[in-house]
Amino acid sequence: MKHRYLPMTETDKKEMLAAVGVQSIDELFADIPEKVRFQGLYDIKEAKAEPALKKELSAMAAKNMNAKQYASFLGAGVYDHYTPSIVDHVISRSEFYTAYTPYQPEISQGELQAIFEFQTMICELTGMDVANSSMYDGGTALAEAAMLSAGQTKRKKVLVSETVHPESRDVLCMYAKGQNIEVVVVPHKEGVTDISQLNELVDDDTAAVIVQYPNFFGAVESLAEVEKAAHGKKAMFVVSSNPLALGVLTPPGRFGADIVVGDAQPFGIPAQFGGPHCGYFAVTKKLMRKVPGRLVGQTHDDEGQRGFVLTLQAREQHIRRDKATSNICSNQALNALAASVAMTALGKKGVREIAVQNLQKTSFARETLKQNGLDIVFDGPVFNEFVVRLSKPVKEVNNKLLEKGIIGGYDLGLSYSGLDHCMLVAVTELRTKEEIELFAKELGDSHE
Amino acid sequence: MNNKDQALIFELSQPGRVGYSLPELDVPEADISSLLPDGYVREEEPELPEVSELDIIRHYTALSKRNHGVDSGFYPLGSCTMKYNPKINEDVARFDGFAHIHPLQQEETVQGAMELMYDLQEHLKEITGMDEVTLQPAAGAHGEWTGLMMIRAFHEANGDVNRTKVIVPDSAHGTNPASATVAGFETVTVKSGEDGLVDLEDLRRVADETTAALMLTNPNTLGLFEENILEIAEIIHGVGGKVYYDGANLNAVMSKARPGDMGFDVVHLNLHKTFTGPHGGGGPGSGPVGVKKDLIPYLPKPVLVKEKGVYHFEYDRPQSIGRVKPFYGNFGINVRAYTYIRSMGPDGLKAVTEYAVLNANYMMRRLAPYFDLPFDRHCKHEFVLSGKRQKKLGVRTLDIAKRLLDFGFHPPTIYFPLNVEECIMIEPTETESKETLDAFIDVMIQIAKEAETNPEIVQEAPHTTLIGRLDETAAARKPVLRYERDLQNA
Ligand SMILES: Cc1ncc(COP(=O)(O)O)c(C=O)c1O
């Protein structure tokens, strides 16, 4: 069969079979026992030529309503932000995207240096000493933080705030089950972690206290109080954080966090139906040798020239096997590169400006909704998101919004009891004043 | 600092330069201190670079030139399947209707994406011979852990709580034992015999009523097909364990043997290998897991179902192990894999395997006179050589790898699997031409000769790369893991 990805000709094949000393390719598969040998061809769709396939898949894509056509007020952990055009141009350079893990540093300096820069930027934003080269996503990064804490403290219980992303908490519970770690949920009060409940629940068996900042409802948690509760019992203080928000929020490192994790998706990574995004993992110097995943370090070559290598690999599965700090191997390197380009483009000034715009627009949207007669559920300061109570099911309202070209917010009733008919509204710098006002008007009109 | 150095982006920074273009703030501006609590407004600016757009492009272009990808040249890295990454895949993954959809949109608004996922699952079921597939795991290791958690749940549901051990061959990839640990199991190693295959006697010895599962790669990481696979499965099933297939090496058996027919109960695939998801410099990948009927109830949720032509995420799965990843997996990589499978079709996937295996055997036979061949039999998609002979001449496998750099080739995987001394593991893939294979073979032969006549040139390699061998010990002894201005100037 002739295919554009398969270069061997009949002549090649003949010569190669002769060199191997066999008559046919089939002979090379003679070691597969007759009983398990697959006969014939897979019963799957026939191959399609490039133009026809592109057309078919383009039609499939067109069935999906997307954030380029609709004004989206949906966030809940995945946000529609400004992505500089250069991001896609850089990650489309195939020296980056067709390379493997940089195990041969002499011909992988580009990737290694890019990761070293990524690690630095994550440290700068979070206020931490050390960041790794990426994790699968914010949810698994958070779960790994809990495991690291349990290992470090030799304790078997973690406390996680109810205001942490529900899907991240689900993932945490999965990892915790594997490790026989108990997960205790600290309830929220008025949309933020209930500190008095936290103080009651935290004890000498607690390995970690985990909160999200800003939290799932968009509220700014009191990290100072959580820190006191955690460290008061010598538990690890773990913060899951949207790194873009840290352009304007005091970084968790300043509040004494031991581990800061999150997802860099807001920096230049498309939503793409939930993945791949880009988890990050940052720690204090003390925990450097316990970090999961790959780390890039600076060194020099035999002539003293600066260069970069994968380092502290004795933590990793390919060296330590069952004693490794984590089983992660492939990570999200290309998305870490995308995030690096976006963070570089924004730079010191832009990261502040974009964060402030998000803060301002969220506040404006909340006020506008209030003026349109809507019931704002929690009062405290918010970033990107807030909760509004509707008089109808969220789904019903969202269906109406679609007709106006708007993707509405997340239905909190799906994951929180007591928040039926409540919508989590996300507002980024990309939502214009007109879009916000239209959204507010439509929500107001739906209100009885 | 000499001119071979590429400045760090931070070193290019000049106060006052910008590389972004944000919309004007079009809403009334409030005082920030009125919007955030006291003490929560960031005071110190993060030290991100201040550079122009062209600065950024030049920087990353320079970095890309210091990187070798499949598009730069041959990349015969064993166990990694560095095949060509088709460009149509990249275009399709960037369609607005795939790239810019939110995972929490209402299902009616994303039926096209769900259709793609569903059809990919159907294709993977047929390819693996399994009864159901989940696309949720993010990569191979994540899939391993997911599969093991399902096995654990299965045993627990049967009241079989003493199955605490997972058997792993000594040739297994490091993620296998690491995943077993994360899933709460203890790892037991089973030896490979002289022939490179699982030693059945040793397997019988270690398999017992505490065995939860055996993890196996087939063909194994030596590139050899485990001929006794049915017996192996029988031994494990006989003691009540499950048999797990590490599908990283599916490129060797597509259309030739399916894990489901070989007796495996669970399989993970690396869509970033056999199915052309680009490796991305280390990720992202995608690691779907397929299972046999009796494990279906334990699949992670949500499970994608189709009812009367409508796709739906089902959450009501009381026996499900739960969620292994936020949302539904690495959809963007799954789009690429789906595009690839649809480009190849049934004939194409069969030809892929046939050429992958022919190419590996051809290289193995041509190199056999010059290096030690620990296992002299037909290989599958990859094979291992040993640099033992060269080591006696003072040339280590690492040196051979570095010498290959001088000729523009990415070296093979080295020192893995662990059970072969001075291991060199070569996987050509099916997308390379005979001319490329021959060019690589010629260079390997030249290096073997150099080891005899001029070992220094190999020992001191590379000679042509921008940078020489790096001091890894120094990097680990005093780790510098981030840029700090003062440190660089010191
Ligand atoms: C045999 C084998 N198993 C498992 C893995 C792990 O896959 P991933 O890197 O996607 O986690 C690999 C990848 O290197 C592999 O070669």
Strand order in the largest sheet of chain B: 1-7-6-5-4-2-3
Kindly state the percentage of residues in helix of chain B: 25-40%
Distinct ligands, ions and cofactors found in the model: pyridoxal-5'-phosphate
User: Looking across the biggest beta sheet of chain A, what order are the strands in?
Assistant: 2-10-9-8-7-3-4
The number of helical segments of chain B is 16
Tell me the CATH architecture of the largest domain in chain A: 3-Layer(aba) Sandwich
Tell me the number of strands of chain B: 12
Which percent bin holds the helix content of chain A? Answer: 25-40%
- Give the N-to-C terminal Cα separation of chain B: 13 Å
Structure characteristics:
heterodimer; A: 448 residues; Aspartate Aminotransferase, domain 1; Aspartate Aminotransferase, domain 2; 2 domains; four-stranded antiparallel beta sheet; 17 strands; 15% strand; B: 490 residues; seven-stranded mixed beta sheet; three-stranded antiparallel beta sheet; 12 strands; binds pyridoxal-5'-phosphate; oxidoreductase (chain A); GDC_P (chain A); Probable glycine dehydrogenase (decarboxylating) subunit 1 (chain A); GDC-P_N (chain A)
Spell out the blueprint of helices and strands.
The complex is a heterodimer of chains A (448) and B (490).
Chain A: H1 10-20, H2 50-62, E1 71-72, H3 85-91, H4 94-97, H5 109-126, E2 130-131, H6 138-153, E3 157-161, H7 166-178, E4 182-186, E5 188-189, E6 192-193, H8 195-201, E7 206-213, H9 223-232, E8 236-241, E9 259-263, E10 279-283, E11 296-300, E12 306-310, H10 317-320, H11 333-371, E13 375-376, E14 385-389, H12 394-403, E15 406-407, E16 410-411, E17 422-426, H13 433-446
Parallel strand pairs in A: 1-15, 3-4, 3-7, 7-8, 8-9
Antiparallel strand pairs in A: 2-10, 5-6, 9-10, 11-12, 13-14, 14-17, 16-17
Chain B: H1 32-35, H2 53-65, H3 87-93, H4 96-99, H5 111-128, E1 132-134, H6 140-157, E2 165-169, H7 175-182, E3 186-190, H8 200-206, E4 211-217, H9 229-238, E5 242-247, E6 266-269, E7 289-291, E8 303-307, E9 310-314, H10 331-367, E10 383-386, H11 388-392, H12 397-405, E11 413-414, E12 423-426, H13 434-453, H14 455-459, H15 472-477, H16 485-489
Parallel strand pairs in B: 2-3, 2-4, 4-5, 5-6
Antiparallel strand pairs in B: 1-7, 6-7, 8-9, 10-12, 11-12
Bound molecules: pyridoxal-5'-phosphate.
